[in-house]
Amino acid sequence: MSKPQSSGPNRNRRRLLSGMAALGAGSLLAGCDRIADNASVKRALGSVEQLTYKAQRLIASRQALAQQFDKSQIAPVFRPNGTTNPQEDYYRAWVENDFADWRLTIDGLVEQPTRLSLAELSAMPSRTQITRHDCVEGWSCIGQWTGVPLADLLERVRPRDQARFVVFHCADHTYGGSDLYYESLDMVEAYHPQTILAYGLNDAALPVANGAPLRLRAERQLGYKQAKYVMRVELVDSFKNIHGGKGGYWEDRGYNWWAGI
Amino acid sequence: MPSGIGPVANPNPKPNADSSSRPASEPEASESSRLIKRHSLSTRLWHWTNFLCLIVLLMSGLQIFNAHPALYWGEQSGFSDPFIAIHAQAGNDGEQRGVVRVAGYTLDTTGVLGLSDDNGQLRQRAFPRWATLPGDKWLTMGRNWHFLAGWIFAPSVVAYLLYTVISRHRRGSIFPTRRQLRAIPRTIVDHARFRFHHEADYNGIQKITYVLVLFVLLPMMILTGLTMSPSINAAWPLLTELFGGRQSARTLHFICALSLMGFFFVHIALVLVSGVFNNLRSMVTGRYRITERPDGPVNREDSHE
Q1: In the beta sheet, which residues pair with residue B123?
Q2: Is the pLDDT of residue A255 over 60?
Q3: Is ipTM > 0.90 here?
Q4: Which residues in chain B are closer than 8 Å to A132, comparing Cβ atoms?
């Protein structure tokens, strides 16, 4: 806040006004794209995300459970999306020996960093839930997930007070690019009872196409939050130093970090 | 929104001797006419805010639809058997064709739906680039525009509906009287003959249309929209049950949006044919010229908000 005139309600009002101006201008067909590329318009659009995030936290109970379904409603094939068959050498090697050498690292702002094998994770108390996966593209698919509640894992590593987000680092380079996939949740979503790291789908081991050996299920969020091929869980106080700094692979490419809508 | 979908049709019209010589927007000389205040400032602001919001919501909505151009009934997507799908497929000659499939029927829509010109090249896209916001395939920006407009649109609709229900005056101008309902056949005949009457009150057809748009379509848009949010879904599962599942809600959202677009076109057509100057003036300045017939007052009130 170096410039007092650009702080507080004034700044918010300007944002709102520029947002409304952008809206008005946006409807002039010819100029839409030029306007949408404008930086301040992008900022105004981004502030809407904060509004949605805060409003949903306000009106929706933090403990509310996502709908659960009947076994009969499970889709015959759970539609895989994004990376479906990672080609990285280390990943191929894990697949070769059934993930026996694979370890999950939990570190960052925690008292007791840890590394866990798939067998150790499977030995922990598990949770099974039949839920609906909602892709940002618009489609939905119902599957049954079995895994370790993230809250139990957090209890084990004891997050420090500064920890504000949980970041999930993945093994795959999406679309063969140079960035590894990653995602993040705030602590409310991380401690939610239905937030699990799943190793089972529909009573079988999690298939490679769906994120073997371990993937995130955060059931009150859209599909791109459900990180697959999770290798490392890191607790942080900000996203600043992680990849593009927006808290996720798609977030770095313009998607909203808040994926509750 | 309460500008006419058309102006008021008189239940007992008198033949007009010189109607052909005058523009439809100006009443006949044999009848006395005067300006009334038809729309309050708040109604006019609401109308034009909605106009902007609905255009942005529609075009950004089509951008979002393009990300997965298929609709289903129920909770989830039966990918092999969508209710509606818009895509490109090889035709009999092996050339790509744009098609719309609805409940098993296939319609060739090459050039507009499914396959259309995208920067000088035919490309697979459900809705063409001139219909989407932004024009390029860009889901995240479409979502941003959609939610920005939604945040302005939804609260203003809710406030307006509450006000309409609470205010007796507004109830009178939106809900039809028994007399107006009985006059509907007559009103239809008058509209079919392009015989429009300019009165302070709306006619039965207008009022039924407004009730449907205000109390059915607009709330449906907002509620089915909210139902698609997984967070809202967890908080208010009743909504999902009400619409028969998330994919049903998405399909209803689309159908209601098309219905609103239908209303929009009929609305504009009637505004144009029934006196575009008088209608536009009433929604810009609030002033509307009404006709008073010699055989007694037909206007219940002098002014309407």
Answers
A1: B116
A2: yes
A3: no
A4: 75-76, 246
